[in-house]
């Protein structure tokens, strides 16, 4: 509960930052323009989104303009409602932000913010209370149960099960969750897969990489600065478990120190994010993220990830791939650790991509998350196209850091 309250405060601050950059949303924008103006986009990122989303270049530009409007509306909704909505997601068919609410007064505020209200039965408080009950019953883990969280579109909850690891205990757990849902009259969805997610560190080389001395090759996330002239970068917490270990760049030379002082790694309920200090002569940090064909894009700020939004991911193993955010604020059981507050996408990934960058808005790229894990070990079209990321804002907030920006 404490972490969810901190997250709510954090995303409120991010919403304010988005409003400061994009401009306020209020009654003057209550009725969106009939057709969004296509946004310009760097060629590489536009090409990848066209390829991975199955859209023409013009369709990508129109969608990005619609998503920009939806993010402004989301910031306004968070500012205007007195309690969190039951859910928010981008609907690619209508090009609008959908907001689930339980009260008529909130529905009117949502319209004023430029979004589309959907009246539902269960509030955010009811849904998260049921998720907490599931947390309690999972305990130290249930065979085959790999994740759970709020199902915003269904106004219910969802649990994910690896059918290859299911046992009689798994079936009993599913029955228990369905009974809890029935008692609260909340729908329960069970999603089944043949693969369990894993935190994707590895030994594959190539692209933008960094090498901790002990935890295997991983990917750089985003460059950051902080108090006392600190400079470094964010990556996955499971890549930075050992305190004060040497960190090496893609060329094999030492760039800095991973998990400085032992307080630079989180890999548990609170999240999956880590910190590397760049403290060696000749190394500097930049706002760039490696894009299509090695071309770089410079991040200009931070963005909250919303379900339904397009997203692009960069990692040292599989390179640059795009997709959509499918779920947000989910709990994932990796088998070795349980982590709350993660988001799912359908952009492919591979071992060694851990810690890599998730960005959106090609016209002015915004940092969204850090790669945590996935269900497939390759990007050749085989396996589940499931990837999981850690929202980047929590790491910035925890260590009082600032994103290195440019553009």
Describe the 3D structure.
It is a single chain. With 407 residues, the chain is an alpha+beta fold. It is 25% helix and 32% strand. The protein is globular, with a radius of gyration of 20 Å. It starts with a helix and ends with a strand.
Observed structural traits:
six-stranded antiparallel β-barrel; 32% strand; 24 strands; alpha+beta; eight-stranded antiparallel sheet
Offer a quick outline of the entry.
The chain has 407 residues and is of the alpha+beta class. It is 25% helix and 32% strand.
Number of strands: 24
Helix percent reads 25-40%
Amino-to-carboxy terminus distance: 38 Å
β content, as a range?
25-35%
Report mean pLDDT, rounded to a whole number: 85
| Structural classification | alpha+beta
User: Over the alpha carbons, how many angstroms does the gyration radius reach?
Assistant: 20 Å
Q: Which term fits the overall shape?
A: globular
- Provide the low-confidence segments as ranges: 15-41, 201-207
Number of helices: 7
Largest sheet: 8 strands, antiparallel
Protein topology:
Layout: H1 2-22, H2 43-53, H3 57-80, E1 87-91, E2 96-101, H4 104-112, E3 116-119, H5 124-138, E4 145-151, E5 156-162, H6 168-184, E6 188-193, E7 198-199, E8 210-212, E9 222-226, E10 230-235, E11 245-249, E12 254-258, E13 265-268, E14 271-278, E15 288-290, E16 296-298, E17 301-302, E18 310-315, E19 319-333, E20 338-345, E21 357-360, E22 366-374, E23 387-391, H7 393-398, E24 402-403
